[in-house]
Design goal:
3 helices, 28% strand, PRC-barrel domain-containing protein, Bac_photo_RC_H_C
């Protein structure tokens, strides 16, 4: 997907002083939820997305390398994934996985091998 799945792709114009919380997140085939939390930490950037009723109210952790575009005016983030790819990702439990190096390696491997859908 990118050389470092935990960094924004060079074609994404990420403005670091913009808070992404509340932004709508869209996959290639539909909405997946809204950003609840995000980090721009170098080499470890991510989005925590609240999926609402779509995946029974669960959250997912998306590495920044999955982001294909950010529209600040529309408060919308596009990711180069399908809804199914997000749904099939390793389960994310915030209290256990947010700071877990093992989980990030697992998730990075999962998203690193999925063919991208650059929009």
């Amino acid at each position: 997907m990118s050389e470092n799945v935990w960094a924004y792709h060079v074609t994404v114009d990420r403005i670091t002083d913009v808070d992404l919380a509340g932004y709508k997140v869209e996959a290639a085939d539909g909405t997946i939820g809204k950003v609840d939390k995000h980090s721009d930490e170098a080499g470890s950037a991510y989005l925590v997305v609240d999926t609402g009723p779509w995946i029974f109210g669960k959250e997912v952790l998306l590495p920044a390398g999955t982001v294909t575009g950010i529209d600040v005016e529309e408060k919308r983030i596009r990711v180069g994934l399908t809804r199914e790819q997000v749904k099939d990702a390793p389960e994310f439990i915030r209290d256990q996985h947010l700071e877990s190096t093992d989980y990030r390696q697992l998730l990075g491997g999962y998203y690193g091998i999925i063919p991208p859908r650059w929009l």
